[in-house]
Each structure stands twice: as C-alpha cells, then as structure tokens.
Amino acid sequence: MDKEIYLDNGMATRPSERTIGKMIPLLTEKWGNPMSPHKKGQEVFPEIKEGFESIYGLLGAKEDDDIVFTSSGAEAVNHIVNSLYYDQTLEAGRNHFITSNIDEAPAIMAIGKLEESGCVGKMVSANAQGAVTADIIADALSPRTALVSLDWANGLTGVINPVGEISELCEDRGVFCHLDASHILGKLYFDLSKIKATHITFGGDFFHAPRGTGALWIRGGRHCSSFIVGGIEQAGLRAGSYSVANLVGLGSACKEAIDARDFLCTETARLRNKLEKGILKGFHEAIPFFRDQERLPNVTAIAFPGIINEYLLFNLNKRGVYASIGGGSFQQIGLVLMNSGIEKNIAHTAISFNLSRETTDEDIDRAVEIITEEAHRAKKLSFGLEL
Asked: Which of 10, 239, 302, 385 has the greatest number of beta carbons closer than 10 A?
C-alpha cells in the first residue's frame, strides 16, 4: 500500500503533539474537580484560565462576551437553537427559524426537532455560486423570525458565505444570528467587531484540537439560557464537570491556529491550487468547483464526470489517499452541489479534498498521481454506464 495521504481534514484533523503534551499532566497529575474547595481542585485554575483566554484570543472576543466550553460543535449548535426556543419562542412567540439547504446536520436537525413543538423551520437555497447571500436571507425573514443559523463556510466546497452582510441584516431586523465557524478558524482573517452575529459556535476537530471539544460564543449583553442544567459550572451556562484536559487541549490548538494562519492562507492555498492543476492536467475531464468564489484556502471540490464518486473514493482509500464525499454531520457532497444548481449526473461524481498545515508538496505530488491513475481506471470500467 502507498504512503497514507490524509486529505479529509474537514471531517477530523490529527491532534497536534503539542496539544497532546499539554493535556497529559491534566489527565495524570492535575485531575481534580475545579468545583472542589481544596487544593487538588483549585490547582487546575491557572490552566482553565489560560485555556479560555486562548479561545477568546482566536475569536478576538471581548471581556464582556461569554464563551461556553462544550463537548463538540454539535452540542454548541444545539445549545443556541434550543435556548432561543425557550428565550424567544416561549416568551415572545417568535417561532420561525432559518437555516440553509447546504448547512450541516446539527443546525438542520435541531431546527427540525423544534417543528415538533410548533415552530416553523425554513431552509433557504444557496445560489449558483454555492453561497447563501443577504438577499436570500432577506426574502425568507418574517416578523416572527427568531434565528438565522448558517455555516460561515461550507466544509465540503470551501465556499465562504458573506456573513458580514447577513449578520448586519439580522441586526437591523432584530433577529438573532448564529454562525458556525468550525471550518474558518485558523484559515480566515476576520474582525469580530465587524461581524454582527449574536452567537458563534465551533468544533475543535477541524484545527488539530482533541476530539470532543467545542465552544459557543455569546455576544456581550445577550441572554442565553442553559442547554445542560444541573449545576452552576461555567456561570450557570452549562452544568456538569467538564474535562479540564480537553479545555487545555482546545486552548493549545487555538494558539497554534493563530500561529499557523499565515501559513494556511498562503502555503496551503498554494498546495490546494497545485492539487487542482495537477488533477486537471492528468485527467482533463475533471471539474473543480467554485474557483472564482471566495473560498477557504485548504478546500477544493472536484467532479470526475462519468465516475460514481463512491467508487472512486473506495479505490483511493485502498491506495491510501483519504478524501470525503460527506457523511457524518455533513450532507452528501452530491446533494450540496445539486442544491447549488449543479446537474445531478455531475454532482454525484464529486469528491472533496481538505488539506491541513501538515500537508506537504510530496503529499500533493503523490496524491495527484494516484487520483489521476484511479480516475482513468474507473473511467474505463464505467464506460457506457449512466449515473
């Protein structure tokens, strides 16, 4: 088998060695509960403080903003959706919740769950450029809209939504705006003061933090009721004794994400472009999507016309090239592309490749060679078949 080449960093990234090293003492030595009124519990306070400061630093958050440490990005999304049901729907009667047809499962399913309680969920459609615009959101708003919940960027296509315009529209209309920033942190420069969102969530899985970490940011002055009740931890915003080791790991990964941001925005973008050009050169029928749109520097979605993407992905897996067609919290990439107006017979031939700061020139050279070889082999076997 060839050397493994990991190009599925939109699903999970390898936790960094530095992050793991920071966590070990919190699992073996400083394992006390910070709620305990004695030295064993209180000795972890400095690490907790440092962890939260690092999360604030990555987001560019202010002191009066709240950040809730969670067990995942999915929990953070469910927290905001369910909290607004209690805070807005039950108290003010605003029962209209908006997301998009290219968003990920947590928002879509959380809003869908509220429909069982009399709420109205609305999924707006992305445009032909794979984005959700402020005009699209404006057409969907109503006086009863409580929340607009969107991904900041799509983790399969890399397309970045114009969240500045969308969040400003929501502020003008008095609507809460939630953005999931899981795929942009460490990969996109932004000024939080210019983003008018009321809530931001993210999972640590996508920038080399330990699995099972995430956070919810709440703009200062905004109320948000607890999703998990049963204690006064985290200022009453989330009950339960959280993993200090995971918090420290997330904080460490946040610091590394800041340090690596220039590299990802330049070098990783260069490797992404090299991958696209190499595949086009070796397999002329390939179609990279959304190259003219604002997109993440590490993501590309490429169609291989005439080849079923599951079959090609299977063969790449056997050769040690790991990519994605969706699944897990993602929709299938074929559905995402079809929801952006791509023809079905093309959309279902697409594969998403997601690089990281660990991806090398040698990885891309070898990946191009294997991908084009397997595409040509699959094309011959698929001759005459209709997708």
From this structure: 10
Give the up-direction half-sphere exposure of residue 276: CA atoms within 13 A in the CB hemisphere.
22
Average pLDDT over residues 214-242: 90
181 and 66 assigned to the same domain: yes
CA distance linking residue 24 with residue 30, whole number of Å:
9
Residue that is last in its domain, among 207, 232, 255: 255
How far apart are the C-alpha atoms of 367 and 362, rounded to whole Å? 8
Q: How far apart are CA 154 and CA 304, in angstroms?
A: 20
Please tell me the pTM assigned to this model.
0.94
Is residue 120 domain-shared with residue 189, that is, in the same domain? yes
Domain that holds residue 335: 5-12+260-381
Q: Which sign does the torsion angle of CA 22, 240, 34, 57 carry?
A: positive
Q: What percent helix, strand, coil does the chain show, rounded to 5?
A: 45, 15, 40
At 52-74, the pLDDT tens digits run 999 999 999 999 999 999 999 99
CA distance to 74, 231, 249, 257, 302, per residue, from 272 (Å): 28, 46, 28, 18, 11
Return the SS3 of 145: strand
CA-closest candidate to residue 245, choices 218, 211, 217: 211
